[in-house]
Write a structure and sequence with these properties.
- The complex is a heterodimer of chains A (281) and B (87).
- Chain A contains 6 helices and 16 strands.
- With 281 residues, chain A is of the alpha+beta class.
- In chain A, strands 8, 9, 10, 11, 12, 13, 14, 15 and 16 form a 9-stranded mixed sheet that branches.
- With 87 residues, chain B is an alpha+beta fold.
- Chain B is built from 3 helices and 5 strands; from the N terminus they run E-E-E-E-H-H-H-E.
- In chain B, helix 2 packs across helix 3.
- Chain B has a 3-stranded antiparallel sheet with strand order 2-3-4. Chain B has a two-stranded antiparallel ribbon with strand order 1-5.
- The chains are: A alpha+beta (281), B alpha+beta (87).
- At the A-B interface, helix 4 and helix 5 of A face strand 2 and strand 3 of B.
Chain lengths: 281, 87
């Protein structure tokens, strides 16, 4: 199979992927890539050139996905366990070198694409959030929470009638003065999810907490900001990108209603979400 | 006695709240109005004695209370490694 250059579209971003044909990816992943929406939706097109770095033994220094990074006014370089990125913002070009510590280039490719998506979103007033996203009647809600908080369970319980955009990693982008949400087509299961490129207006963000009681509180700005920060993907080594991320969080907190849901079981949350979607038929 | 701020911080003031992101440890701190007042003075390299006087004047608290609050505030920031005593 031969891909000299392939265009994919995610939210407000387009990626012109080059060199994918030379990557040692599985036939299933290659076929999945071809399924992703390839109609350019916006003018934000990035050229991504892939290459493979020889595999060597690596020991992650931190839990954080990036081991190191440097940046300048026009770009940045990031080093992670599975890939290295060199980003030129002015030329909108990205060089990606993959390595495969577990000899699985599919995993490295998917991690790399999700990192690229996160980075580019921050550059365009968006952000990637560790949250499930569900939708009904063209309105999307993010359900954020720490690992084990029940995001996936909740999303699955609500579907149907809701549909799941993503059960773990949601992409929020700003376009035309409002926020939109889409799922990453690059799933943690190592597969491509074509349907996740659907883009829907973001209605509200819910943070779930396990408790012995059930209640719902609207979050004040500073609490919303802190909660969002805990669930956003950051790039600690890079001040400019972090600065951009905090600015985007500010915009999002000013625009979108955020709530914290305490619940001792899934029922109150399901009931509340049913109400939310009834308000936006 | 002077304190200095850690290197890897990104600081945002939104309305009356100051947010300090410790990029090294990926932790976001936020300060209420009193905390924000003190943090801004720390950024201006005001010594602890100066902080006491400023807090007493601006927030109508006794010097003893101000010293107690400031000590608690600085200890917390030191524990979080976002400030350290200037050598």
């Amino acid at each position: 199979m031969y891909f000299p250059s392939m265009m994919i579209c995610v939210g407000t971003l387009n990626f012109d992927l080059r060199g994918v044909d030379r990557l040692p990816l599985s036939a299933e992943l290659r076929a999945g890539l071809k399924e992703i929406d390839n109609a350019p939706a916006a003018i934000n097109t990035y050229r991504v050139r892939f290459s493979v770095k020889p595999t060597h033994e690596t020991t992650p220094l931190f839990d954080h996905p990036f081991e190191s990074g440097v940046e300048s006014s026009t770009g940045c370089e990031l080093c992670a366990e599975h890939f290295e990125l060199s980003v030129d913002w002015s030329g909108r070009s990205i060089a990606a070198e993959l390595r495969a510590p577990s000899n699985d280039y599919d995993e490295s490719f998917i991690r790399c694409m999700n990192a690229i998506l996160s980075l580019c979103l921050i550059h365009h007033q968006g952000l990637a959030v560790h949250a499930a996203s569900i939708y009904l009647n063209d309105h999307a809600v993010l359900i954020a929470g720490r690992s084990g908080a029940g995001k996936t369970t909740l999303a699955t319980q609500l579907s149907p009638p809701c549909q799941i955009l993503d059960d773990d990693f949601s992409l929020v982008c700003r376009d035309g003065g409002r926020f939109w949400v889409t799922g990453s087509p690059f799933g943690r299961d190592g597969r491509i999810h074509r349907h996740k490129t659907v883009r829907l207006p973001l209605e509200r963000i819910l943070f779930t907490r396990k408790a012995f009681h059930a209640d719902r509180q609207s979050l004040a700005f500073s609490s919303a900001y802190r909660s969002l920060a805990r669930n956003s993907f950051t790039f600690p080594a890079l001040p400019r990108i972090t600065d951009g991320l905090l600015d985007n969080m500010h915009l999002l907190c000013a625009d979108i209603h955020m709530y914290i849901l305490h619940a001792d079981s899934i029922t109150p949350i399901v009931d509340y979400l049913s109400l939310v979607f009834q308000e936006n038929p | 006695m002077n304190y200095e701020l850690a290197q890897d911080l990104t600081i945002k003031k939104i309305e009356e709240t100051i947010f300090v992101l410790d990029r090294k440890n990926s932790v976001l701190h936020s300060f209420n109005d009193t905390g924000a007042f003190l943090w801004e003075r720390l950024e201006q390299h005001v010594a602890v004695e100066g902080l006491c006087q400023m807090l007493t004047e601006s927030f109508e608290v006794s010097p003893e209370q101000a010293r107690c609050d400031i000590s608690e505030f600085l200890n917390t920031l030191e524990e979080q490694k976002i400030i350290s005593l200037r050598k």
